Amino acid sequence: QVRLAQSGGGSGQAGGSLSLSCVASGDKYNPPCMAWFRQTLNKGREGVAAIDRYGATTYADSVKRRFTISRENGENTMYLQINSLKPEDTAMYFCAEGDRAICTLDPDNYQTWGQGTQVTVSS
User: In degrees to the nearest 10, what's the CA dihedral of 102, 107, 113, 119?
Assistant: First the structure.
């Protein structure tokens, strides 16, 4: 059984930066896919970025060139660096792990979820 523990996030101003981390623990090491999602009342759950165990990444168009996803396989840790913050980045952010061969931003492809971390951006 895999467990995901998130940290980071918090509040920031538009144009600033924040970072999130997610540590996987349990029976499975090096999950094939890890990803970040965000959720708001208005938009529901949205895939933000995904990364496979080899470092190949996928980003939502809305975050390209501002968000960077990375992972340290030896530490079972995934990161999300958020630069050039925008108020519309305000959301609850979740990390997730999945066992599909191809890492997508479809939440149905992920089996284990972190507890969620709030990111709030002021203008």
Answer: 110
Which residue, 80, 113, 73, is CA-closest to 97? 113
pLDDT in tens, the chain (123 residues): 789 999 999 999 999 999 999 998 876 567 889 999 999 988 889 999 999 999 999 999 999 999 999 999 777 899 999 999 999 999 999 999 998 888 999 999 999 999 999 999 999
Cα–Cα distance for residue pair 76/97, rounded to 1 Å: 11
Q: How many other β-carbons are positioned within 10 Å of the β-carbon of residue 82?
A: 24
Tokens found for residue 106 = 């479809």
Return the amino acid letter for 13: Q
Which residues make Cβ contacts (< 8 Å) with residue 5, sequence separation at least 6?
22, 23, 25, 114, 115
